[in-house]
């Protein structure tokens, strides 16, 4: 019977995953987590659209859209998506200096994006309690802000690890996962919010 | 010239590592077995607390009335939240976290730190829910209500906001755990463990985790909207269209999670029954497909236009719940088909498994009876629905999970429970669930609600849960494979070591130990 068995590590030892296993696991986990994030926003947009389709006057009178700021945020998000890819390129080809500069720019764009978003939330005058429109749009924009914070946190962590020589071409998949999170949390989320709230209202 | 070589002195032996205190190792653990046990313990405590709360709710001192089971009150709401949104999911996550990596031949979870984060976030969220209910009168008495209360112009209390935050944190933790389980199944399987070779429970876990990853964030979105609505005294859920949002984002019976854990039982019970028949299931592929379908079909809850009178558990029933019942029925037929080669050998887990099947059957009979008796008055429909909810959302998952805990008890606790006590537990749980559901049915069919029966049900259910501990403590040490199980978890030593396996058989089928048995027989 023992011949029919495969030898595995002896009990009491935990060898942890190999680099190849980790390379497979982390991107997969990131994709699944992003899927959950997509469903979160799908839920928010579904609620927004359900109320919109049952309301005669939409949006309520008195709402003024700040197209300038919202479009600026879109451009900022798009630029940050380019710079984080530059950071990923630097990590992949072992150009650490380039990567650090790219991270500085990305984080700068991220802070600018969150700052603009915060200004938009406070300036938009949605009055969340007055109308269902105000409640749903406030929830969507605040969720976008929270998601942006998550993306910024991931990018800052990756930047610190790069500065400390912990993130190199050997564990490039960590950088790939960070970039995917950024693309979703900043780029995709704001594109969806911009279209549904500012363009297709 | 002489060269004098000096022999380097031997390095002084390193002092032995100081063992960390047990509490620290449990608090910081990333071991799936410990995390699973902690989830199980927490879930058990939550369901027990729910029983106590529902018994207290009926006492006059707490504002109990004879028709308690047909109205939403503060304590009844707490009971629903604690039992159905915290307890049952925690029990399922705990069992899946412990068992599934063993069934896959994995030495660890793919994302152990995420799973540990899920555990402690879950505990924190559950604590916030408890504090929310204890602190003050909460306005969101229960998500079991099919329509939101009108709260326009009145800001929520801090207790309400705490409750919403707690429920959201529990839901986020559930998503973390589901992501971890999903990635473990997709990327953590051992060599030879192809998808086709996975056990039915692992397949079921794959489907349930997928549904949780898709559905729970939508619930979180609903809670986020609810917080905004309550904090700013809005009218989101009472404006046109808002009722639909409430029903599909927040209402307990309008979301896929309503019957998800009952559907999860299809896969779990298949592994239990197959193990005790001690031969591979001839219709394995059918059972696997039906177990996955039962879980995935719950996603169609979002497509239904629910109302007080039309919901998955109302007398009219729905094609959706019938299709889930059909999938479950196919699996039961596949078990019965395998019995022609010999009946399963008795094990207490089969008592609980039989109880779960009986409860599912009883719920189906009740739907037919209600259709014949024309239960269509709103108050009676709501009462009937409470009875059905007790059976389908609480009874089936609880009996299923009890069967699973008894079945995998030798691996979970390293002990075999005394058969008499464990069988008694299954029967007591079955009795408790039926008593708990009875008042709703009585009112639904035009009788008088007798809250005493429901209180008795809560007490009996609590007693059944306490028997868990007694059965574990009173058991004898378990051998590695006490039932001659054929799936991979039975290849582990008992108690299961840190790395799970010492030796692992070659895997060419969903029942790898059957091949080893044949090899040994030759």
Account of the 3D structure:
- The complex is a heterodimer of chains A (about 200) and B (about 525).
- With about 200 residues, chain A is an all-alpha fold.
- Helices cover about 75% and strands about 0% of the residues of chain A.
- Chain A has helices at about 20-50, 65-90, 95-125, 130-165, 170-200; one strand spanning about 5.
- In chain A, helix 2 runs antiparallel to helix 5 (about 170-200).
- The radius of gyration of chain A is 21 Å and the shape is elongated.
- Residues about 5-15 of chain A have low confidence and may be disordered.
- Chain B is mainly alpha-helical and about 525 residues long.
- Chain B is about 65% helix and about 0% strand.
- Chain B is built from 16 helices and three strands.
- Chain B has a two-stranded antiparallel ribbon with strand order 1-2.
- The N and C termini of chain B lie far apart (about 70 Å).
- In chain B, about 60% of the residues are buried.
- The model of chain B is unreliable at about 65-70 (pLDDT under 50).
- At the A-B interface, strand 1, helix 1 and helix 4 of A face helix 5, helix 6, helix 7, strand 3 and helix 16 of B.
Tags for this model:
heterodimer, A: 201 residues, mainly alpha, 5 helices, elongated, B: 522 residues, two-stranded antiparallel sheet, 16 helices, 3 strands, 64% helix, 1% strand, globular
What would you say about this model in short?
The complex is a heterodimer of chains A (201) and B (522). With 201 residues, chain A is mostly helical. Chain A has helices at 19-52, 67-92, 96-123, 132-163, 172-199; one strand at residues 6-7.
Summarize the biggest pleated sheet of chain B: 2 strands, antiparallel
**Oligomeric state, counting identical vs distinct chains:** heterodimer
Low-confidence stretches of chain A: 7-15
Main β-sheet, spatial strand arrangement of chain B: 1-2
- Overall SS class of chain B: mainly alpha
How many distinct beta strands of chain A? Answer: 1
Structural class of chain A: mainly alpha
Query: Mean pLDDT score of chain B, rounded?
Result: 85
Regions with little confidence, pLDDT below 50 for 5+ residues of chain B: 63-72
Shape of chain A: elongated
Average pLDDT number of chain A: 88
Largest interface: A-B, 53 and 56 residues
Ends distance of chain A: 69 Å
Tell me about the largest β-sheet of chain A. none
Query: How many DSSP helices of chain B?
Result: 16
Helix content of chain B: 55-70%
Order of helices and strands of chain B: HHHHHHHHHHHHHEHHEEH
- List the secondary-structure elements of chain A in sequence, H or E: EHHHHH
Radius of gyration of chain A: 21 Å
Tally of DSSP β-strands of chain B: 3
How far the N terminus sits from the C terminus of chain B, by CA atoms, comes to 72 Å
